[in-house]
Amino acid sequence: MKRTYFSFFALLLVAFMLFAGLSFFKDGIEESFGINTATFASDLLSTPDDEFELAEVVTTDSVSGKAIATVERAPLDTTKKNILFIGDSMLERLSPRIAAYAEENEHQMNTVIWYGSSTEVWATSGRVKECIQKYRPDYIIISLGGNELFVNDIITRRTKYVKQIVAEFADIPYVWIGPPNWKKDTGINKMIQSVVPKGNFYLSYTPDQHYERAKDGAHPTPASAAKWADRICKWIVEESNNPIVLNLPQKARAYCHTETFSMTDNDVKAKPKVEPAPKPTVQPVAEPVEPQPEAPNPNTETL
Description:
Elements (H helix, E strand, L loop, with lengths): L1 H23 L1 H8 L6 H6 L3 H9 E3 L6 E3 L12 E6 L3 H14 L3 E8 L3 H7 L1 H9 L3 E5 L10 H16 L4 E4 L10 H8 L5 E2 L19 H17 L18 E6 L8 E2 L31
Parallel strand pairs: 3-4, 3-5, 4-8, 5-6, 6-7
Antiparallel strand pairs: 1-2, 8-9
Helix pairs in contact: 5-10, 6-8, 8-9
């Protein structure tokens, strides 16, 4: 009886080894004999594919420590884009240089500057949707956060606003430019990074980036802002999730349609700034006319 069991298990062992061995030579056997063999051996010796795939699409949130999904990088989009550039006063210096890139590469660009704005007012005012409906962009660049460097408990108080803004972009490709800090912030950059995928957020505040500041100590000078814009455009092409064609322009700066808004004390929602009235045309000054001597009055005696 024992011998019968031994023979049975020996036969199973030989069959198992033969089956596993055939699996190692799957391709050759299928090609020679047309037999569809199983990848039994590879399944035994390999790590489940799901673990590798998960590692490719999951990263760690630097703020909360939670796993968040990343976005796969798209191929270079060579089509002409309709770019919408929105944000705070940093756009005043950034926009002319980025507009030069747009013009050089035959993109259309519209800029909306909201002076003194924050993630909160952009998210709660409805202005993001208004701009999208008005300009119909197929690519968005946003530079926002400079007015929130020193907000306390910013992650708790402002994260929902960043989520709201990104949600309103819907499926439009976008890039979020972080503020060029002049002092250490209370978490604005980390907060944005917790919502915006890595390849959609340009971190402007790094040790290798230096800015010359205007008299206010916060805004970069025009020349420094132009270099900042060059770095951003290079990053968009080489590292962003949604690269577009941005070849180096020949012009230093260019003009694009620009709409400006300002914050008011009585209304959270922005109101358009009144455009200055056009200057009247200066008329040429007429030549002075020399006074003619009056004719003598015949009724008056002349002394």
